[in-house]
Amino acid sequence: xILCDIGNTxxxxxxxxxxxxxxxxxxxxxxxxxxxxxxxxxSRFNERVINCPNWHDLRAAVAWEKxxxxxxxxxVMVCEAVEEGVIVxxxxxxxxxxxxxxxxxxxxxxxxxxxxxEAYGRLSPALDVSWNFEVDLAKMAxxxxxxxxxxxxxxxxxxxxxxxxxxxxxxxxxxxxxxxxPDAVVDEELIFKGMKKLIEKGRxx
Amino acid sequence: xILCDIGNTxxxxxxxxxxxxxxxxxxxxxxxxxxxxxxxxxSRFNERVINCPNWHDLRAAVAWEKxxxxxxxxxVMVCEAVEEGVIVxxxxxxxxxxxxxxxxxxxxxxxxxxxxxEAYGRLSPALDVSWNFEVDLAKMAxxxxxxxxxxxxxxxxxxxxxxxxxxxxxxxxxxxxxxxxPDAVVDEELIFKGMKKLIEKGRxx
Lengths: 205, 205
What we know:
By secondary structure, chain A is α/β, with parallel strands linked by helices. Chain A is built from 6 helices and 10 strands.
């Protein structure tokens, strides 16, 4: 069994604990003959995969009444992985969601670190600075890199901490953010754990 | 006496409590014969104004040791206006600064509302939604407009409130933000009040 997370630019395959990342444009779903369980936010890929009988879309297995209809499928999967806690998925966006006793309580969407840095840069050349991830978020800033880094991170980190524990960090920027959450669990495979749990629930066709 | 705040796209003139906004590109500083005290972040304008003897740059009047060298001059001016409190200047960026007994304690820079909305829109068409400024920031969101609006505003508003009182709101988006700060003083002329105070201190040449 292969698990697969299809984004707009990349395909992330997971088999027996091993992860392989490929470019979405070059990827041919017919090249895999094993059973594949996938999630996808890539509409071009969805058209290609529709005739592959061994590819199973996990979207159909989600109990959507727990979530909301326009919620991203990747976000649903990291929530499925966690029974109790705050899930921070730090990718192109940073999604923050709360699960309590398996019930989805809601969440919010922040800009991802790269998107935020770029947005500051677009505002003014003076704000197009390297971020200082060593910044002390408890202190008021007195230079531009700290004012920008803390300006984005201090409110976000405080808000996440206010939601309670445990905190799970996933996604490409999980390691960078973990500096500000010393007690958090960093788990870059949370999305695949969610997919696996959903398959085990047996609603997959 | 005329006060003037020169941005990259507009010129904001203030005389006897009356404000006039003009386009920076068309504006000829020689067209004004009265004494003008100005701040400017517009380098093209600065070259044009250099030969106007009646135009006085307030940058030279700032006691920069109180602030930091790369701090925006507009930000310094709103701080000069306030002896005690938290100053939120919500324009293309949202700057947040703290003054205690006339001493600058530091601050941070957030994206402006428009810049943030655009940055979400660039991430994904699914996040290119109208913001809901009626959102209840105390509740976890369960739809995309609320998840995005609260994702940006809830952390920022909580962080500003954590800095103490009084809170002063200035800049083009002061009215929109005031909904979330019922006790704040909205003062769209804070920048001119700071300029006036600085002139009264008498360090202007």
